[in-house]
Design brief:
The protein contains eleven helices and twelve strands. It has 403 residues and is an alpha+beta fold. The protein folds into two domains: 2-278 and 291-305, 4-Layer Sandwich (Phosphatase 2c, domain 1), CATH 3.60.40.10; 336-365. Strand 6 and strand 7 form a beta hairpin.
Length: 403
């Protein structure tokens, strides 16, 4: 399988480009053969200092660390290692400038290795899988809105209050802190098939275009799709348009190329097609005359390479997103449950202790038969040995209402 890249970027209406992205060296055969190809995208936090520097540092560190052959281990382990190193670099950069906790960036990264996809995500940049005319979000946004929505689901806040909360878009996890609060990553590698596309983008894109606009753009080849997505965003002429960055990885099967069913590579000079067998050849438009884009996309969707396995992967992904959507709520309910149990145990234990302490020091309040046995229990036992029934004396401990 060949991986065909595409990308596009624009500063938007901002004064500075604070997005950064990059690909690993696809000519580095040893790296490609042992750990695949890496794509990284970061969005510096505009409301904080050094957003552009943070995103650039995070991307360059991620790429360098992942391609260091001295580091050994499974792909996901290497990916996480590189992520935490990138965080350490951004954090140290902030400390050196006297800006600790004031510098941050999002980061998303994907690795395609042996026709499988691995990813990590921190922040609100997103990774999507385009397959079978469907757009599947693979990542969860680390924003305060998730917690607000959970409050709504639990009936503790109205939807209107949550939607209008001033901190709804605030990030709850990002690079630049001493430790990363939360990392989103796939539990197991996701198989990729002919026709799949992996989209990495900053919120300057996914916060502007709807799902239909993104899907329609992704029905083209990787570079055309990247350019079209960017043009759609800019066409809206938003007054405060954020930086926009798009990176796309299109999966093309070798046999499909040989049978004249390949996608078009319209990437500018310098962009290359990755062959996992380390062979390169130019990519030409192989659609038959008169065949429309929609016909071509429809034919790909019915290709045997999708088969049942691809559909099961989609079902698994959708199930995962539902599970992630309720994960935070379940954690809250679990902690409330644990707290309730602890309080209940303390209350019962405290009551029992009070009971034992009170009646041992206040024997006069316990009804006693003339024979010195406690009433009200089957098989009653003597409270103490005595010659005559207990009668109050001056030494008797007073009842609580006595003075």
């Amino acid at each position: 399988m060949r991986i065909i890249p595409g990308n596009a970027q624009h500063i938007g209406a901002r004064e500075e480009q604070q997005d950064a992205f990059g690909f690993s060296n696809w000519d580095y055969a040893e790296v490609v053969g042992t750990r695949g190809v890496l794509s990284v995208l970061a969005d510096g936090m505009g409301g904080m200092a050094m957003g552009g520097e943070a995103s650039q540092a995070a991307v360059s560190t991620m790429l360098m660390e992942y391609q260091t052959l001295a580091h050994r281990g499974p792909v996901m382990e290497l990916l996480r290692r590189a992520l935490h190193q990138a965080n350490a670099v951004v954090n140290q950069m902030a400390v050196d400038q006297g800006l600790e906790n004031q510098v941050g960036t999002t980061l998303i990264a994907t690795v395609i290795h042996d026709q499988h996809l691995f990813w990590v995500s921190v922040g609100d940049s997103r990774i999507y899988l385009y397959r079978h005319h469907q757009l599947i979000p693979l990542t969860e946004d680390h924003v305060y809105a998730r917690r607000l929505d959970d409050e709504v689901a639990q009936g503790r806040m109205s939807k209107e209050e949550a939607d209008n909360h001033p901190h709804r878009a605030a990030l709850t996890s990002y690079l630049g802190l001493r430790e990363i609060p939360e990392v989103d990553a796939n539990v197991k590698p996701l198989p990729l098939y002919h026709g799949d596309k992996v989209l990495l983008c900053s919120d300057g894109l996914h916060g502007v275009l709807d799902e239909g606009e993104i899907i329609e753009s992704l029905e083209n080849d990787a570079q055309t799709a990247s350019t079209m997505l960017l043009e759609r965003v800019l066409a809206k002429r938003r007054k405060y348009q954020d930086n926009v960055t798009v990176a796309i990885l299109a999966c093309v099967d070798e046999q499909e190329r040989e049978h004249g069913r390949s996608e078009t590579q319209s990437a500018p000079a310098g962009k290359r097609i990755l062959d996992h067998n380390n062979s390169q050849k130019s990519n030409t438009n192989a659609r038959q005359d008169g065949e429309s884009k929609s016909d071509y996309a429809e034919e790909l969707s019915h290709h045997p390479s999708y088969a049942k396995a691809a559909d099961e992967d989609l079902v698994d992904l959708k199930g995962r997103k539902r599970r992630q959507g309720i994960r935070f709520g379940n954690r809250l309910r679990l902690w409330w449950g644990v707290l309730f149990i602890v309080l209940a145990v303390v209350a019962v234990g405290g009551g029992y202790f009070t009971y034992q302490k009170w009646f041992r020091t206040n024997p006069a309040v316990v009804p006693v038969q003339p024979d010195g046995k406690q009433e009200g229990k089957t098989g009653s036992i003597p409270l103490h040995k005595q010659e005559a029934p207990l009668t109050p004396t001056a030494q008797t401990v007073p009842m609580p209402n006595q003075r």
